[in-house]
Amino acid sequence: MPKIEDVAERAGVSVTTVSRVLNNRGYISQKTRDKVYQVMKELNYQPNEMARALFRRKSNMIGLIIPAISHPFFSELAYHLEYYADQRGYKLLLCNSDRDVVKERGYIDMLKKNQVDAIIMGSSVLDVQHYLHLNLPIVSFDRPLSNNIPFVTSDNFMGGRLAARLLIEKGCRQPAFVYRGIGGPHHHALLASGRAQGFDRECKEAGLEPLHLQLEPNDTDESGNNKELIRFFQEHPEVDGVFASSDVIAAEVIQACREGKKEIPADIKIVGYDDVRIASLVSPRLSTVKQPIRQMSERTIELIAKQIEGEDVPMTNTFPVTLIERGTT
User: Fold this and answer.
1) Which of 192, 193, 204, 213 is least surrounded, with the fewest CB atoms within 10 Å of its CB?
2) What Cα–Cα distance (Å) separates residue 249 from each residue in 83, 129, 272, 273?
3) DSSP letter at 168?
4) CATH 3.30.1330.10 corresponds to the domain 156-292
5) Are 328 and 286 in contact (CB under 8 A)?
6) Tens digits of per-residue pLDDT, 261-309?
7) Which of 156, 124, 119, 157 is closest to 139 using CA atoms?
8) Where is each HTH cro/C1-type domain found (predicted)?
9) What integer pLDDT is reported at residue 328 of this predicted model?
């Protein structure tokens, strides 16, 4: 495998000159630059990216830690984040934490060793102090970690209100909120909390007392959640409207209703949250609260880039949500 010394020797320049060409530092004539690139092509020379990162003190890599890439919301989020990162010349290192403390800590250590320029936290089960001591630009997605770490979120509280408002307008008198338990020390700050608060507020202002059902966290057995939902509807046959904290959970509710012989939307109406692709694929198509995932991703990368350049950024970045009505209401 050719080395940088081999490129320098054939091009008739110093190793320092080749390094400057690779890292675009200092004045190099176009003739010399073209010569170095020509030799690199002839030798099939591949620069050592880690060495370049050390030289430039910048790796152009951003770490992204999410709880589950298999979840439709996080897969769409990762897609948009990668797109906007690439637009700014950055590459993403994707880390799937499963909301496991050991895995999350291990990924953070790995990202530091690989000298990433910043980290996007879409999963946070470690103590907040762990993030404050990283000495890296950080953006948290959808949950506040600390007053010193900017975060990007949608208006979860208003989303809950919009969902309740739609169910009430459609005649629901016994609404329920269904969400999945997360676990971890930051549960109180998680997105489901704001959605629940908005939902409860709207219901109570209408004189209604909503029920809550918390599904088991990280349940890999889909039939377990299905049985839990079927049992819930059997125990509470009066439930005529459901707000699910995500479109995925809403899809599970649809399946449970189908098995329990509940007609949608005649017997029960359902509203999800996110408006990921699954919302348009289930039958009936899902009414949901839309998060502007693309715009939120663009802002996240913008906040990262500005921090890397040493600029001040706003700590709270909240995006409005919109209600999308489809066949389940």
Assistant:
1) 204
2) 27, 32, 8, 9
3) H
4) no
5) yes
6) 999 999 999 999 999 999 999 999 999 999 999 999 999 999 999 988 8
7) 119
8) 5-32
9) 98
Q: Where in the chain is the domain with CATH 3.40.50.2300?
A: 61-153+293-318, 156-292
Instruction: Determine the longest span between alpha carbons in the chain, in angstroms.
Output: 84
Q: Which pair of structure tokens corresponds to residue 248? A: 């995925």
Q: Which amino acid, one-letter code, is at 166?
A: L
State the chain's mean pLDDT as an integer. Answer: 86
d(CA 88, CA 300): 12
Bridge partners of 324? 288
* pTM for the model: 0.79
Class of domain 4-49: mainly alpha
Using one digit for the tens of pLDDT, what is the confidence trace for 246-258?
Answer: 999 999 999 999 9
Instruction: Please name which of 156, 155, 118, 157 lies closest in space to residue 140, comparing C-alpha atoms.
Output: 118
The residue among 241, 323, 255, 246 whose CA lies nearest residue 277 is: 246
For residues 315 and 48, the model is more confident at: 315
- Count of alpha carbons within 13 Å of 180, Cβ hemisphere only? 21
Tens of pLDDT, residue by residue over 186-220, are 444 455 689 999 999 999 999 999 999 988 765 44
- The torsion angles phi and psi of 74, rounded to 5 degrees, stand at -75, -30
Give the DSSP letter string of 225-278.
HHHHHHHHHHH-TT--EEEESSHHHHHHHHHHHHHTT--TTTT-EEEEEE--TH
Residue 319, helix vs strand vs coil? strand
Instruction: List the CATH code of the domain at 61-153+293-318.
Output: 3.40.50.2300
> How confident is the model at residue 24, as a pLDDT?
64
The C-alpha atoms of residue 150 and residue 141 are separated, in whole angstroms, by: 9
Residue whose pair of structure tokens reads 């953070």 in the numeric block: 108
